[in-house]
Design a protein that fits this description.
- This protein is an all-alpha fold and 194 residues long.
- The mean pLDDT is 89.
- The chain is built from nine helices and no strands.
């Protein structure tokens, strides 16, 4: 039952992530409550943080079921993957205002220009790639069933999350984003250039 609750928690978290980030919802909120919309991103961040903390507490309350035993190799690989994932995640956020991203700067304009340089020249969603590596590193480090559930839930969600996020990006940037989609892979860089 603990794992069902954990999967349910991630399902709610990821579903809300996609629903609350939908451009249609943002347009409706802007029309109905134009003055309140400026705080939308902050409310979104707070809701996400509360859900994430709940998921983490649930995961910590589950008795450990070891899937893979610890070894020097799993420790090395866990640090390698998590380290690269952290670097990729941090570099992918380099051009963004943290205050704006978290919703503490409601009057600034969100993502006015399409970023296609740096990591974004190799993959369209480097933050998601970083998260995959971090979750994989965590799974290899802990080797538990609950860490496997975290990773599997992320991997199941990403195709849906990318689909909905890219619908918003096509609506926002039009042909420029469609060309970018055809030139750059979503998660994993190509080994050879086109």
């Amino acid at each position: 039952m603990n794992y069902v609750i954990l999967v349910l928690g991630w399902s709610i978290f990821y579903s809300l992530h996609s629903v609350l980030a939908a451009s249609k919802l943002k347009k409706i909120l802007t029309r109905k409550w134009p003055n309140a919309y400026k705080w939308y991103r902050l409310a979104y961040t707070i809701i996400s943080l509360i859900l994430l903390v709940g998921i983490l507490f649930q995961a910590l309350s589950i008795p450990k079921t070891i899937l893979i035993p610890k070894s020097d190799l799993t420790n090395y690989l866990s640090y390698l993957f998590a380290g690269f994932g952290t670097i990729i995640s941090m570099k992918s956020m380099k051009g963004y205002s943290l205050k704006n991203f978290l919703g503490f700067d409601p009057l600034s304009k969100e993502g006015e220009t399409l970023t296609t340089t740096g990591l974004y020249a190799k993959v369209r969603h480097p933050l998601y790639l970083g998260l995959i590596l971090i979750f994989l590193g965590y799974f290899l480090f802990s080797g538990t069933l609950s860490s496997a559930v975290h990773l599997i839930c992320l991997l199941i969600y990403l195709p849906f999350g990318i689909y909905f996020e890219e619908k918003n990006l096509v609506a926002q940037y039009g042909e420029a984003y469609q060309k970018y989609q055809s030139d750059v892979p979503p998660l994993f860089p190509r080994m050879k250039s086109k």
